[in-house]
Amino acid sequence: MNDLTNSQSTFFENVAQIIEKARHYVGRTADITMCVTYFEIGRMIVEEEQGGKARAEYGRALLPELSTFLNSRFQKGFSETNLRNARKFYQVYGDLIQQTLSAELADNSKKQKQQTISAEFENIDFNIGQIISAKTLPFRLGWSQYQILMRIKNEDERRFYELEAVKGQWSVEQLRRQYHSSLYERIALSRDKDEVMRLSKEGQQIENPRDILKNPLVLEFLDLSEDTAYSETKLEKAIISKLSHFLLELGKGFLFEARQKRFTYDEEHFKLDLVFYNRLLDCYVLFDLKKGKLKHQDLGQMQMYVNYYDRHVKTEKENPTIGILLCKEKNDNIVEMTLPADANIYASEYSLYLPDKALLQRKLAEWIKEFEDSQEEKQSSGDMSSIK
Questions:
Q1: Would you give the DSSP letter of residue 79?
Q2: Measured between alpha carbons, how far is 163 from 154 in angstroms, rounded to an integer?
Q3: pLDDT tens, 166-221?
Q4: pLDDT tens digits along 145-161
Q5: Do 328 and 293 touch, CB atoms closer than 8 A?
Q6: Contact of 42 with 90, CB cutoff 8 Å
Q7: What is the mean pLDDT of the chain?
Q8: Which of 167, 164, 187, 186 is nearest to 176 (CA)?
Q9: Strand 254-265 relative to strand 268-278, pairing
Q10: Alpha-carbon torsion 209, 341, 232, 258, what sign?
Q11: Alpha-carbon distance 140 to 163, whole Å?
């Protein structure tokens, strides 16, 4: 293989790429086919149950009897639980997927009449390829991921996780972890109130330094117990050993550069705990780890680190360096009093266990309610001023 000419190497690589694309297509087709199948089963069950409302006994027996019939024909895979999941899938996503698919297929085929999934499913060999090539896929994730999403009651929250799972190509386990770690609530509570509404429509957008913050940063994957003594060095080592998990928790655009980054200034030696680069913000992001309560001296030290990187490391084309102090406990008033108003330095708490999701949901609901009330008050004030 070492004696390949350039033309041979290019040819072999092109053949390999064809195989990789084919495998991806086959896997994607299988995902879409499964979603279409369960969607259709769910639709048929819902319509049959609605048609049999007057026959309560028949309605109760429908799923058990259908499960028995399907398993006798196909051996396995159609338990009552799976059939309930199919019904739930249609009930949650029916209107949205129906509209998306109908619009795409009508546009692609230049037909004026809307088409249902049922009609398209009759010619699935042709239409699956058409669906995959469509600009907007009605099924952009796998069936296992939809089983997680369809159980999220809040529509905005569900839409957010769907967008992020598609953009981040999250696996089932990654999606499950992000949901249980309350990613939606933590990002929302770290934003201005008028930006919360964007999350369900656009997902997480990284446009300024504050957009990378989450409060708290959840590090349950480190397996460090709250009641066990650990040093900042042990915390750092645990993060490095689970770097892929830490990068997922940090979010979009982060690239790891160094740990214990040493630099010398004015004949004194300093070490930065962790150095990352964020390609979306085009800047360095420095992390200093504090296992206890944040002190004003810690903020001053980070200010020096950020100044050094801005003056001696970053290029003219790069944006100002961001400093993040990751601590167990912080006092926002101390942070505000210590740092200049325009400082690119932030303090973020970390948690070694998954947060109380219900508590965060209540807090977010209260926050949104306050925002909506203030908007109504502003609008009412504007209406009154126009009358005057």
A1: -
A2: 14
A3: 999 899 999 999 999 999 999 888 877 767 778 888 888 888 998 898 888 999 99
A4: 999 999 999 999 999 99
A5: yes
A6: yes
A7: 82
A8: 164
A9: antiparallel
A10: positive
A11: 9
